[in-house]
Amino acid sequence: MQPTGKYCAVLFDFDGTLADSESAHHRVWNEILGEMGAHIDDEEYKRESSGVPVTQEVERLIQTRGLSISAKALVDRKVERTVASFTRDPIALMDHALEMLEWCREQGLPMALITGSGRQEIAPTLEHYDLTRFFDHIVTRNDVTHSKPHPECYLKGLSLCGIEAAQAVAIEDTCHGVNAAHAAGIDVIAIPNAYSRGQDVSRATVELESLAQARDWIDVRCVKRQP
Question: What is the model's pTM?
Answer without folding.
Answer: 0.93
